[in-house]
Amino acid sequence: MEKDKIMGIRCDVENCVHNQNGCECTAGSIQVCSTCSDPNCCDETVCRTFKAQDCCH
């Protein structure tokens, strides 16, 4: 939703429902988490706000 857009958040995941114009995140908030059991020793993250678009539209 455009009114909820957080300015300055870029995303390359084009199949997310929150992605607009191929690089803009329109989610009202985002949650990013570490993928490792010890987040202090890991450089991998995942966007927990991601929601796949309906592929049959």
Total beta strands: 4
Specify the structural class.
mainly beta
The gross shape turns out to be globular
What is the radius of gyration?
13 Å
Mean pLDDT: 84
From the structure provided, what is the oligomeric state, counting identical versus distinct chains?
Answer: single chain
Order of helices and strands: EEEE
Low-confidence stretches: none
Relative strand content: 15-25%
The overall number of domains is: 1
Major beta sheet summary:
2 strands, antiparallel
Can you list the strand order of the major beta sheet? Answer: 1-2
Distance N to C terminus: 18 Å
Number of helices: 0
Helix fraction bin: under 10%
Domain DUF1540: 9-50
Protein name: DUF1540 domain-containing protein
Keywords: Plasmid
Short structural summary:
The chain is mostly beta strands and 57 residues long.
Q: What would the keywords be for this entry?
A:
mainly beta, 4 strands, two-stranded antiparallel ribbon
What do you see in this structure?
InterPro entries: DUF1540. This is DUF1540 domain-containing protein. Keywords: Plasmid. There is one protein chain. The two termini are 18 Å apart. This protein is mainly β. It is built from no helices and 4 strands. The strands form 2 sheets. A two-stranded antiparallel sheet has the order 1-2. It has one domain.
Write the layout of secondary structure elements.
Layout: E1 19-20, E2 24-25, E3 32-34, E4 45-47
Antiparallel strand pairs: 1-2, 3-4
